[in-house]
């Protein structure tokens, strides 16, 4: 399944800036960055639950915002992209 993770972490304090880096690192382990605070994650249900737990442990719910969007298959009909960035198709053929 494709999960879009969007977050907005308050960076007004040093603790907030550290939290922002930790949130980004959690997302980088599970997906690819497509915008500064937006990640695409192609994961299964168990990985999704782990990602959600890890991110909820990092954010401060009174200051930050965290959103998950589950994109229903077929993804090709639900996601359109324009511009120079192209996300990696981890399901397709990977040429090294």
UniProtKB/TrEMBL annotation:
Transmembrane segments: none annotated. GO terms for biological process: defense response to virus; maintenance of CRISPR repeat elements. GO terms for molecular function: hydrolase activity; metal ion binding; RNA endonuclease activity. Its cofactor is Mg(2+). Its EC number is 3.1.-.-. The keyword Nuclease applies. InterPro entries: CRISPR_associated_Cas2 (IPR021127), Virulence_VapD/CRISPR_Cas2 (IPR019199). Mg(2+) binds at residue 8. The keyword Magnesium applies. It comes from the Bacteria. Gene3D superfamilies: 3.30.70.240. Keywords: Antiviral defense, Endonuclease, Hydrolase, Magnesium, Metal-binding, Nuclease. Belongs to the CRISPR-associated endoribonuclease Cas2 protein family. NCBIfam families: cas2 (TIGR01573). Homodimer, forms a heterotetramer with a Cas1 homodimer. CRISPR (clustered regularly interspaced short palindromic repeat), is an adaptive immune system that provides protection against mobile genetic elements (viruses, transposable elements and conjugative plasmids). CRISPR clusters contain sequences complementary to antecedent mobile elements and target invading nucleic acids. CRISPR clusters are transcribed and processed into CRISPR RNA (crRNA). Functions as a ssRNA-specific endoribonuclease. Involved in the integration of spacer DNA into the CRISPR cassette. This is CRISPR-associated endoribonuclease Cas2. It comes from Halothiobacillus neapolitanus (strain ATCC 23641 / DSM 15147 / CIP 104769 / NCIMB 8539 / c2). The gene is cas2.
């Amino acid at each position: 399944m494709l999960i879009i993770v969007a977050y907005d972490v308050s960076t007004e304090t040093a603790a907030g800036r550290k939290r922002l880096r930790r949130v980004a690192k959690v997302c980088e382990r599970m997906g690819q960055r497509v915008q500064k605070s937006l990640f695409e994650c192609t994961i299964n249900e168990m990985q999704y639950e782990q990602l959600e737990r890890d991110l909820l442990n990092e954010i401060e719910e009174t200051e930050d915002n965290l959103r998950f969007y589950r994109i229903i298959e077929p993804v090709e009909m639900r996601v359109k992209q324009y511009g120079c960035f192209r996300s990696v198709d981890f399901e397709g053929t990977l040429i090294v």
